[in-house]
Amino acid sequence: MCLQIDKSRHHDLLDVIWLEVLLAVIGQQFGKYTADICGVVVNIRNKGSKISIWTTDCNNDESNCKIGEILKQKLTNPDIDSKIQRPIFDVLRYEDHQEVQNKSSSSVKAKHIITASD
């Protein structure tokens, strides 16, 4: 599950989102799906940053979608830093790691998409 952070909002969002993701994973807030998480990573780039949750099986649609839904709940929680302009994100995308590694263009087709507005 990955979340792109536009470079124009990078300075006010990156630390807040990264903290929420880390606390959720460390605190096992993904319930029975926590065991399916094998890593979290942040990529900081000039064009925009990306925070990703890596899962053990890209074909476990139930788990991957549920992890995305729980992450969405965490990031749309009104208790997160009130100084941050909403919405915090537009889209959460689930991408197959192998497809990302082998991509020939700048984007990869997402297996699952979760929007903030749903």
TrEMBL record:
Gene3D superfamilies: RNA Cap, Translation Initiation Factor Eif4e (3.30.760.10). InterPro entries: TIF_eIF4e-like, TIF_eIF_4E. GO terms for molecular function: RNA 7-methylguanosine cap binding; translation initiation factor activity. Coiled coil: none annotated. The keyword Cell cycle does not apply. One of its GO terms (biological process) is regulation of translation. Pfam families: IF4E. Keywords: Initiation factor, Protein biosynthesis, RNA-binding, Translation regulation. One of its GO terms (cellular component) is eukaryotic translation initiation factor 4F complex. Belongs to the eukaryotic initiation factor 4E family. PANTHER family: EUKARYOTIC TRANSLATION INITIATION FACTOR 4E RELATED, EUKARYOTIC TRANSLATION INITIATION FACTOR 4E1-RELATED. This is EIF-4F 25 kDa subunit. It comes from Brugia timori. The lineage of its organism: Eukaryota, Metazoa, Ecdysozoa, Nematoda, Chromadorea.
